[in-house]
Design goal:
Layout (H helix, E strand, L loop, with lengths): L5 E2 L8 E3 L6 E3 L7 E3 L10 E7 L8 E6 L5 E6 L2 E4 L1 H4 L7 E7 L8 E6 L8 E5 L6 E3 L1 H4 L7 E7 L8 E6 L5 E5 L4 E3 L1 H4 L7 E7 L8 E6 L6 E6 L2 E4 L1 H4 L11 E8 L8 E7 L3 E5 L5 E3 L12 E7 L8 E6 L10 E6 L2 E4 L3 H5 L6 E4 L8 E4 L10 E4 L3 H4 L2 E7 L11 E6 L5 E6 L8 E2 L4 E4 L7 E9 L2 E10 L8 E5 L3
Parallel strand pairs: 1-28, 9-35, 32-39
Antiparallel strand pairs: 2-3, 4-31, 5-6, 6-7, 7-8, 9-10, 10-11, 11-12, 13-14, 14-15, 15-16, 17-18, 18-19, 19-20, 21-22, 22-23, 23-24, 25-26, 26-27, 27-28, 29-30, 30-31, 32-36, 33-34, 33-37, 37-38
């Protein structure tokens, strides 16, 4: 199988043909996604950095937290597609310079809690806000649980690294070794040293997934300031950096280059998970070879453009069954450094960046979610420039196209969000053909961790599907399959899959 992707960019006025001897293709430039800005009077204000979706009030729709520099945080409660900022009312109107945010149910009570990290090394202590019941009030408990860290905080992630059923806390830093805290119920225990995951380099982004298919979560670590990247293989709770052995460490980078934001999905629909890395320098796409190794396939293509990228997110905006890619760019002296939207046409990437994203784009946070329940992915962007904003773009797909989708929410046996890093695979129920894989969010979109369900667009001709979820358990990888699902018959097109006890 030839796993080399076809990647190209076309101008706004012409088609670009890329001839590959074994499989030539012509890809016409299309108009790209059609977006409409939502509640522009509310989704305004400069300085936005992390943004993360979660149903914090358990009412069945997704709400949005946005952290800011030079301004207080906002928590946008979603009421049937209409948003209200309730941060102050629930106790989350934080001081400025929020740089990181992660949703997770650390105490297992069925209510999502929020971890907040700050930008300054000698200023604010990081905070852990416990949700005291359907989002009515949040109480700060960071000191009580021993996670009120001080440092230049970046990616937080709520992941079950030891497969004991509760979520542990990982926090990346730019100024000190990364930290891992084991959840011991009444308190978190710092296991950084004994686990070996305390990378001392300048980390910004981390992506957790089971890279070697051995039943536990590994961590790809994106490091800045010319430092090499890390890939920490988890062997029973002890981590080893295997990036050099895999050729994925990127040695010899200049001091002003480095990795920022990893994003994981199955972009080529072959059933395994690949990694795109947004970088200061040429961006990188690591294609999973299915045998525990990865190959860099962006080099020499427009996906490897030096866009000074901060983060990237995968999402099938047109519901054609192929994951598209949004890449955010950051330049300190530009409010709107050009972002990029790449449409995935059966493994060929075409630049289809719409004018709306060029005019009101991101510099940091990016997060897809179907906030209005119509079946397509909407896009929240965060720009931390003094003239930037944090626009919410509604995806204006046709009703027919929007309906060609399925969302899969993976929960534990008690209905709690503790299964980050689980894998979801889709198959055509009629033929058994594999349709691709997705990862339950384990952190991304710039220093954020949300709990939006995994999303699949449906390829033409697919009407019913089999859904296979792979969970990480004490006994290794365990699969749960739901067969012959009619996406049109699922409420809000969201299938809930619970882990067995």
């Amino acid at each position: 199988m030839n796993k080399t992707p076809l990647l190209l960019v076309a101008s706004a006025t012409s088609a670009l043909v890329l001839a590959i001897p074994s499989e030539p293709r012509v890809v016409q430039r299309d108009a790209g996604p059609r977006f409409s800005a939502v509640q522009t009077d509310l989704f305004s204000g400069p300085g936005a950095q992390p943004n993360a979706w979660a149903d914090f009030d358990n009412d069945g729709d997704l709400d949005l937290f946005v952290g800011f520099r030079r301004a207080r945080s906002r928590l946008y409660r979603n009421d049937a597609g209409r948003f209200t900022d309730v941060a102050a009312a629930v106790g989350l109107e934080l001081v400025p310079e929020v740089r990181a945010a992660g949703w997770g149910d650390f105490d297992g009570d069925g209510h999502l809690d929020l971890y907040i990290g700050f930008a300054g090394a000698d200023s604010m202590r990081n905070r852990l806000y416990r949700n005291e019941g359907n989002g009515r009030r949040f109480a700060e408990v960071g000191a009580r649980y021993g996670v009120d860290l001080i440092g230049v905080t970046r990616q937080p992630a709520w992941v079950d690294y030891d497969n004991d059923g509760d979520v542990d806390l990982f926090v990346a830093f730019r100024d000190q070794p990364n930290r891992l805290f084991r959840n011991d119920g009444a308190r978190f225990t710092d296991v950084t040293q004994e686990s070996g995951i305390g990378d001392p380099r300048r980390t910004v982004g981390v992506a957790w997934f089971d890279m070697d298919a051995d039943g536990d979560l590994d961590a790809f670590v994106a490091n800045q300031d010319g430092h090499e990247d890390g890939f920490y293989r988890n062997d029973g709770g002890r981590f080893t950096d295997v990036a050099p052995a895999l050729g994925m460490n990127q040695p010899g980078r200049a001091g002003d280059h480095g990795s920022v934001g990893p994003a994981v999905t199955d972009y080529d629909n072959d059933g395994d998970l690949d990694i795109f890395i947004a970088t200061y320098g040429p961006d990188v796409l690591w294609q999973n070879q299915g045998d525990g190794s990865f190959r860099e396939v962006a080099r020499g293509t427009p996906l490897a453009g030096a866009y000074h990228s901060t983060t990237a997110v995968w999402g099938d905006y047109d519901n054609d069954g192929w994951e598209d890619l949004v890449v955010a760019s950051y330049l300190a002296d530009q409010a709107e450094a050009p972002d990029h939207v790449f449409r995935n046409v059966r493994g060929t990437f075409v630049d289809v960046t719409p004018r709306a994203v060029l005019e009101k784009g991101s510099s940091h946070g990016i997060a897809w979610a179907d906030y209005d329940g119509d079946g397509d992915l909407d896009l929240a962007l965060a720009n931390n420039h003094a003239q930037g904003t944090h626009v919410l773009h509604r995806n204006d797909l046709s009703a027919e196209a929007a309906g060609r989708s399925l969302f899969v929410q993976v929960l534990d046996a008690d209905g709690r969000h503790t299964r980050a890093g689980s894998e979801v695979r889709l198959f055509d129920a009629a033929t058994g053909r594999a349709l691709g894989a997705r990862l339950v969010d384990s952190g991304g979109g710039y220093c954020s961790h949300g709990t939006a369900p995994a999303h699949f667009g449906l390829q033409p001709g697919v009407t019913r599907v089999n859904v296979r979820v792979t969970l990480m358990t004490r006994s290794g990888r365990r699969e749960v399959e739901t067969r012959d699902v009619d996406p049109a018959g699922v409420a809000r097109r969201t299938l809930e899959v619970r882990a067995p006890r």
